[in-house]
């Protein structure tokens, strides 16, 4: 039996949800939770160099995440409209917006102080960033898992 065109589009959108969500989660796990801490322990890498690399990596990742947010949103709109997917997507988009418009600029300003030779005062920005990165990965896994489990 041949699938109707609308069902084919929903199936494609659902597959895109899983692919985008799991790929994105893997990238965040690799960069935020593996590469970032390790670079501070690499021989010959100073704190200033490590922070400079981190600034470049997370700036680039943020631009990629904005694109992924748009693609993931499109796939949820085009696919099955399960409430859990909408909630997970809302969490993901809210986190990316928070990082884009508040947290990354605050961390950039702290990095600039370090580059200028003035070590910044202690703050909770990095802890908050780590926490919301973990929540984002969890939301991505939830959305991807629901997409794989329920092909409606």
Report on this model:
- The chain has 152 residues and is mainly α.
- The chain has one domain.
- 82% of the residues lie in helices and 0% in strands.
- The chain has 4 helices and no strands.
- The two termini are 17 Å apart.
Number of domains: 1
Q: Describe the main β-sheet briefly.
A: none
Count of DSSP helices? 4
Classify the helix fraction into a percent range: over 70%
Structural class: mainly alpha
Q: Total number of β-strand segments?
A: 0
- Strand portion, in percent? under 5%
What is the H/E string?
A: HHHH
**Radius of gyration in whole Å, from Cα?**
18 Å
List low-pLDDT spans.
Answer: none
Shape: elongated
Q: Please report the distance between the alpha carbons of the first and last residues.
A: 17 Å
User: What's the average pLDDT?
Assistant: 94
């Amino acid at each position: 039996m041949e699938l109707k065109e609308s069902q084919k589009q929903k199936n494609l959108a659902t597959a895109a949800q899983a692919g985008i969500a799991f790929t994105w989660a893997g990238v965040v796990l690799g960069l935020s939770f593996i590469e970032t801490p390790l670079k501070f322990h690499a021989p010959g890498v100073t704190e200033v160099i490590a922070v400079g690399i981190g600034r470049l990596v997370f700036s680039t990742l943020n631009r990629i995440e904005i694109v992924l947010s748009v693609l993931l949103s499109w796939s949820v709109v085009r696919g099955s409209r399960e409430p859990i997917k909408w909630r997970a997507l809302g969490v993901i988009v809210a986190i990316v917006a928070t990082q884009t418009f508040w947290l990354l600029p605050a961390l950039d300003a702290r990095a600039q102080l370090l580059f200028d030779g003035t070590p910044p005062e202690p703050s909770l920005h990095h802890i908050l960033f780590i926490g919301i990165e973990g929540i984002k990965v969890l939301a991505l896994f939830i959305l991807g898992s629901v997409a794989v489990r329920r092909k409606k």
